[in-house]
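Researcher: Going back to the complex we discussed earlier. I've cleaned up the inputs and rechecked each line, so this should be the final set. Can you rerun the prediction on the complete assembly and write out the structure?
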Amino acid sequence: MAKLNHKQRKRQSLPADFSEPINGKPAKKNLNSKPKNKTKVKKTRLASNKIQKNQSKQIPSDEEDSDDHIKKDKRESLKDLERLGQFNDDDFELMSDEAGDYIDEEFDDNADESNMDNDIDNHNNKMKMFENSEEEGDIELNGAEEDSESFSEEHTETGNTESAEEENYSDVDSDGNELLEIEKESKKLDKKRKIDEVLAEEELQTQMQQREAFVLPQQELDDAEMEVEEEDAAEDLQIVQTRIQEVVRVLNRFQELRDEGRDRAEYIAQLKKDLALYYGYNDYLLNLLFDLFPVSEAIEFFEANEVPRPVVIRANTLKAGRKDVANSLINRGVNLEPVGKWSKVGLQIFDSPVPIGATPEYLAGHYMLQAASSFMPVMSLAPKENEKILDMCAAPGGKTTFLAALMKNTGSIFANDANKDRCKSLVANCYRMGVKNCVVSHYDGRQFPSVMGGFDRILLDAPCSGTGVISKDPSVKISKSEEDFRLLTHIQKELIISAIDSCDAKSKTGGYIVYSTCSVTVEENEEVVNYALKKRPNCKLVDSGLDFGKDGFSSFKGKSFHKSLNLTKRFYPHTHNMDGFYVAKIKKISNTFKKVDNDEEGVIIGNGSGYMTSTNKKQKKLMKNEKLVEQEEVKFNDDEDEKIIKRGLKKKF
Amino acid sequence: MRRNIVHLIERPDETYCFRLHKDRCYYVSESIMRKAVSVGRDNLISLGVCFGKFTKTGKFRLNITALDILAQYAKYKVWVKPNGEMPYLYGNHVLKAHLGRITEDTPEHQGVIVLSMSDIPLGFGVTARATTEARKLDPTG
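Model: Rerun complete. Updated structure for the full complex:
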């Protein structure tokens, strides 16, 4: 019995084993074939049940569950099976159903075990029996008639009607092929299974081959595409994605996996094309971003841009501590957690049943919705109490209010924004957060040293392309062109110069400028800072005071920047799970500086904080010098010069 | 408030003053005010805390931004129970059932500051009944 069971198990488990490595067709086929198999088995089982029942009725010791008995049963049941085979299909089922019911009542224990055995026995012995039955068919049939008589008699005993009996009789004579059919079917099943197995193996092999040969056909495809240079709009994204993965795999182990006769550039060109298609970037931006990272990291970056960043709030220490805010929000059913060790005021929101921007706590100014990345520049600036601070591009006020909170509403903050509409939200946020030391103004940041100078610290969160916040605003992907970048970097350079000039190096506590953008491109970050360092040699970069984030590039794509640019910090969405961000902290050493790129002797007074006190004479001198510079150097920033000259003229009149 | 206004201007730490800028009245420390002088009139949007504004008809309206300061010095206050906070914030009247506390001898039609029970100023209000009358009212009155 144990053996048989084992056999059965084996039979069932075999197809399953094969189906595992392949997730394609064969597994499905097996699945389909299984139920079929089962139904057949069921039929035969039912039949055998009936037989068994007969036997057990004939044998007095039927209730005993001994092995001998079962063996006997089997032997005789085989005979009976043959006999049964003479019945019609319909009758067979009809009877078997009845028998099945019967078994349920009387033969529960016996049936379960012996049935199984019988099934298998049937299957195994059918072949032999088939051979025998052909020869002995006549004799058996005779015997079967007798048997069936007794059988039907018993059936009537068990409550069958006479009509059924008659039917049975008539059918016995009419056809005797049932057994043959069963056998045939079992044979068929065996065949099918074998075919399945073969198919499965074949498929496995073909898959293996595919995997090995993946790159080759791909490259052919490459060629075709490159030559035609035609992007098929209907190209399946799925295919593109797998191709991206494959190419990345090859690029990561280029020596081993490369296709002979193809260089890295070709692979990369293909990859870029695919990436642009898959993530929907325009070509220029993609190139720009792609060059920032190693290949696999670039993919991560693009992937991270598709996922929204976690919502972070900042507790307003002017009104409530982080604990209070957390408690009151938890009471509203908000799921939150401190954002990290680096911040004592940040809370990360996981999910919330109420809109976070509309709770009474929010309206009362207990907290501010603010991305984790925008904590950075403020923390880097580290304002002290009673300082005079300028926030050049302040709206909508997240950083300004954070500044005020750090200063505990002392000193003064000048929050400036060039956009008047955005100033409204800035004012509203300042009021809501209870900031009292803030003066909101509406100037173009580039006008600044003329409006006011001598700040202790300056925060310049420059307007940027927003390549760090693509997850927030995906329109960046397609809307930014080379022209935009040129304009933006130009503005940024002007802003940083005016920021440096507005700062007072003689400040006892400060003299710092923090430049930040929510962009990750080198053009908007390192290059701008580098430009500022060149133009204003009275400045140096200092450590940003942030203990995480990646160091800035001190050289990039052949351009080499000032060495100290590695003191700046970069933040990426895929590594830090916050928006892409850049922070550079600059210390102004003196208010005057020697112009390095100027061959002329003479010290030029920086138009920085000294401006407020500078006399007209100095201005004139400055103007004169700058004019000279303008004539001599083509490289010099013309716009800025013009501006300074105009300013000078104004002052004069 | 009335006489308490003196405390606003003559504070122990720094002298503050009221300044009028484009119809709006701001309450600001003198040092900040002096610094803000250099900001042009057109470009200056706000400074310090906005206290209120003059309407076109010349009436003075308090601004909600002044709540924090006014709450410290207000003469008549009303405290609202926690379950009444939201209805009040959404613009409904304060029912007697929601009334947690009220300054003694508040007259009728008196401007008051509305606070939550945890002393967070919520807004302004005008009493419909005097304190003495309010005692007699039914909860929904």
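Model: Worth noting: Residues 74-136 of chain B form a domain with the Archaeosine Trna-guanine Transglycosylase; Chain: A, domain 4 fold (CATH 2.30.130.10).
Researcher: Good, that matches what I expected from the previous run.
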